[in-house]
Amino acid sequence: MQKTILKTDLAKNEYPGRGIIIGKSADGTKAVTAYFIMGRSENSRNRVFKEEGEGIRTEAFDPSLLTDPSLIIYAPVRVLGNDTIVTNGDQTDTVYDFIKDGKTFEEALRTREFEPDAPNYTPRISGIMHIEGGKFTYKMSILKSDNGNGESCNRYTYEYLEPVNGEGRFIHTYMGDGNPLPSFEGEPEWVDIPDDIEAFTNLLWENLNADNKVSLFVRYIDIATGKYETKIVNKNK
Length: 237
Description:
By secondary structure, the protein is α+β, with helices and mostly antiparallel strands. Helices cover 16% and strands 41% of the residues. The strands form 3 sheets. A 6-stranded antiparallel β-sheet has the order 11-10-1-2-12-13, with helices on one face. A hairpin with a 2-residue loop joins β8 and β9. The longest helix has 11 residues, at 197-207. The mean pLDDT is 97.
């Protein structure tokens, strides 16, 4: 696999949709995740990230403009003990509930499929980070239609038990703009993860399409202590 240069990849993709990045900082001390949302419609662009407990929730920036909350208002990030769950929809709650009941990430996502937004059938992308005893592991998943077939859901899970310092994986909903929107293809992209949260936040935000970007969340978690630092950037202010 060839490494993806995030700055270049984001800058040339007008519409990657929603994206999750998970990996380890270059110095090996931090577990890192980022999640961004984009939008083409007024309803999708009318959002902000707000902190909720140890996680975040999407909210309407102007409630009077909200027309359909079903696929755009949800908790992208929730924390349960040693687990941080990051997804692009309300499957965050599904994973949270299953893990709380002693079940697995995979079991939770077997009860879900891609979004019911034909003809796009937007993939559901998800990640879970586990930090315990000074060790960090993570999984990522994509649930997508079988080449645009709304009657068939393909399920892919990727497990990273020994994350490499300074490296991570990036998965997003779309390969680019289009009608219908073309779903992500292949396994999660291989990317670099820097030590500095400010620099990483700026790199992502500055290279997402200026017209379509909406909000960005970045978190660095100390693998030894579990303490974390969070950055949130909202286009709507």
